[in-house]
Amino acid sequence: MEGHHPAVEEYTEAIFELREDEVDVIQARIAERLDVSRPAVSEMIRRLESDGIVQSDDGLISLTTTGEDIAQRTVRRHRLAECFLTDILGLSWAEAHLEAGKWEHVISSNVEAAMTRVLGNPTTCPHGNPIPGSSYEAPETTELSSVAVGDAFTVSRIPEELEFTDGLLDFLEGAGITPGTRGVVTAASPDGTTTVEVEGTAVGIGSFACDRILVRT
User: Fold this and answer.
1) How many angstroms separate the CA atoms of 52 and 190, rounded?
2) What is the pLDDT of residues 30-55, one digit of tens each?
3) Which domains does the chain have, with CATH numbers?
4) Are strands 194-198 and 201-205 parallel, antiparallel or unpaired?
5) Is the Cβ–Cβ distance between 141 and 156 less than 8 Å?
6) Using an 8 Å Cβ cutoff, are 15 and 71 in contact?
7) Is the pLDDT of residue 66 over 50?
8) Which residues contact 164 (CB under 8 A, 6 or more apart)?
9) Helices 38-50 and 27-34 meet at what angle, rounded to 10?
């Protein structure tokens, strides 16, 4: 099996994705993302620092060049696996996300190359997040919460933070809030809920998701 220990890959992946979502990478955020205790994170970060994989500065954690290489390889294989599991095997978003978390640790370079070929060199995962090492070019986007009532939008990206929110992937996929889907904002409630119309159906989306879903207008 290629690669590093799965725990090393998971920590570097978490740091990479938190940074990607513009979340301060501190031990508490890593603990939340990986659903492990703060002491366990503290111990692992010390090990990763001693191995030259991460570095800390005033509590903020970042990847070294070595750590970045590990993270990009792991994230790439995770997102390719999600594409394969949804596009080829027909799994739901939520199922694919969980399974890809296992596949990312065991996909070899040969299998990665074969999956890339079969999938047609995808640039994003099913949720619109970029696949490292692809020809992805970031479109100009804004948060769904900033779209005015009456304005149209096209879903661009469901950030990783939302993938780790219980039940949210199932909800968004079931409601048709998927990359490439067009919709119109029809109402905005004082509590932060935004109502959108997608393919003739009204969908209410809470502020947590609306502040993070990226769309093109």
Assistant:
1) 48
2) 999 999 999 999 999 999 999 999 99
3) 1-135 (1.10.10.10), 142-216 (2.30.30.90)
4) antiparallel
5) yes
6) yes
7) yes
8) 33
9) 110
